[in-house]
Specification:
Strand content: 25-35%
Structural class: alpha+beta
CATH class: Alpha Beta
Mean pLDDT: 90
CATH architecture: 3-Layer(aba) Sandwich
Largest sheet: 9 strands, mixed
Length: 162
């Protein structure tokens, strides 16, 4: 069974989240998650997916902009758990959290290889391709439905963790 929960950077789960992001998002590109990459993350929303052995197998971060918008970043699912709906569930839950914070629009920088995944979730491309961390990306955005904003999305998310 997969559990989803918000964590803070002061919790043990944060180190496991950073390890997952490094393995899934950086090492395949010949890069390493750096201190610059994680600077300011204590002011971001962290949502993780944890398996029944308390391993972090998925994560997504949210960077509120303070103007009714926020940026989704660092979405990752462990390779052995991909294509099982975990990424979709992380995104739905993060959208609910964002709506509960009064956020009306989400943006993200999608790797072109993940563009279809985000499009199926209602995100649309708003700019041409550009290079980031050495690979092509596209800026995408999604307007949140008013009911998600009012209700916080309707999906429960545990607070805290190990």
């Amino acid at each position: 069974m997969i559990a989803y929960r918000r964590i803070e950077t002061s919790e043990d789960g944060y180190a496991l989240e950073k390890d997952l992001r490094n393995r899934v998002l950086r090492l395949p590109l010949g890069r390493v998650l750096s201190e610059d990459d994680v600077r300011g993350e204590d002011r971001q929303v962290h949502l993780i997916a944890v398996d029944d052995q308390d391993r972090v197998i998925g994560c997504v971060l949210l960077v509120p902009a303070g103007d009714g918008t926020a940026r989704v970043r660092q979405m990752a699912v462990d390779e052995t758990h991909q294509h099982q709906g975990i990424g979709r569930e992380l995104m739905h839950r993060m959208e609910g959290i964002a709506g509960g914070m009064g956020i009306r629009k989400l943006t993200l920088r999608a790797r072109l290889t993940a563009e279809d995944f985000y499009a199926k979730l209602g995100y649309r491309g708003v700019a041409g391709a550009f290079s980031e961390v050495g690979i092509p990306h596209r800026l995408m955005e999604k307007e949140l439905a008013p009911e998600a904003q009012a209700s916080g999305g309707g999906r429960s998310v545990e607070r805290g963790g190990k």
